[in-house]
Amino acid sequence: MKSIKELGNKFINLYGNLTNDDSSWENRQYDFYLIFGQTEENKSPWITTNWKSDFEPYFDMLINQNVILKETGIRATKYKPEKRISKKENEEFVYHSDIKLGRLKWDEKSHEKWTMPNNTENYFLNFELWSPIWTICEKRQSPPEIYISISNERDFEKKRDIKFGYFIVVAIAKSLKFDSKPIMKELSERINSKATILKTRRWGKPEKAGNWTFVNWIQDTFSKGIYKEKNLHSLEFDKLEFEPIWEVIYRNK
C-alpha cells in the first residue's frame, strides 16, 4: 500500500506544484479575452446550429490544449415561459421557470441539452465552462487552465436597447504555453464579432487600467460597469477605447 507521502508526490507530478503563488486563485496569470457579439438574435451561440458550426469547433481546439486535466464541467441557465394565474388579481401572467439541465460535460449530449432551436420561446441566460471542473480546482486550490463564459445581453422581454447581443469571456492560463490568438482570431472572423480584445490578467486580482475596471475575479466578469463604471449598452460602441490597454484581435469594420 502506498504511503500518504507517495500519493501526495503522485498528485503533484500529475497536476504540477500548485501551491506556489503563481498558480494560486489570486495570482495565476491568463490570456484574457472579451468578445462582443453581433446583435442579431439568430446569430447567437446558444442556438444549436450556430454552436455546432461557428463556436464549438474553435473552443474545442482550445480545450484540447489542456492535455493533463481533461475533465471539463459546464453550467448553463435557461428558462421556459409558463402561463400562470395570479392569486391576488386572478390575472394571467407569464412566468419564466428554470429548465433543469442536470450534469453537463464537454460532449455532444450536453451541448444538445443547453443549446436550443432557433424558433424556441425559451430564454437562455448564461453558460460557464471550467477545465478542469470546479471541483478539481477546489481540491487543488487553483483556478482552471481554461475558463469560458457566455452571457445573453437581452432581457426576458427583449426590450433592452443593446449594442451587442452576447458577451463572451475566455481565459487561458499562461502556464499552458499555448498561442491562442490564431484560434481566437479565426473564431472572431467566423462570427464577425463587433470586437475581440486581449490582455493579460490575474484570476483573482481586481484591477483598473485606463477606462477599464475589474472589481472581481475573472469568473465574475460581466459587461456592466467595466468601462468608465457604466453600462456598456448606454455608450456608443464604436467610440470605446480599447488600445493601448487591450490588444485588438479583431474588430468589425
Q: Can you put this structure into words, describing what you see?
A:
- The protein has 253 residues and is an alpha+beta fold.
- The N terminus is likely disordered.
- It has one domain.
- It is built from 5 helices and 13 strands.
- The protein is globular and about 60 Å long.
- Helix 2 packs antiparallel against helix 5.
- The longest helix is centred in the first third of the chain and has 16 residues.
- Strand 9 and strand 10 form a beta hairpin.
N-C termini distance: 64 Å
Secondary structure class reads alpha+beta
Low-confidence stretches: 1-20
Q: What is the domain total for the residues?
A: 1
Strand content is: 25-35%
Task: Give a short overview.
The protein contains five helices and 13 strands. The chain is α+β, with helices and mostly antiparallel strands and 253 residues long.
Topology:
Layout: H1 4-15, E1 29-36, H2 48-63, E2 73-85, E3 92-98, E4 104-105, H3 108-114, E5 123-131, H4 134-140, E6 146-152, E7 166-173, H5 181-191, E8 195-202, E9 207-209, E10 212-214, E11 224-227, E12 230-231, E13 247-251
Antiparallel strand pairs: 1-7, 1-8, 2-3, 2-4, 2-5, 5-6, 6-7, 8-13, 9-10, 11-12
Helix pairs in contact: 2-5
What structural keywords apply?
253 residues; alpha+beta; 21% helix; 9-stranded antiparallel sheet
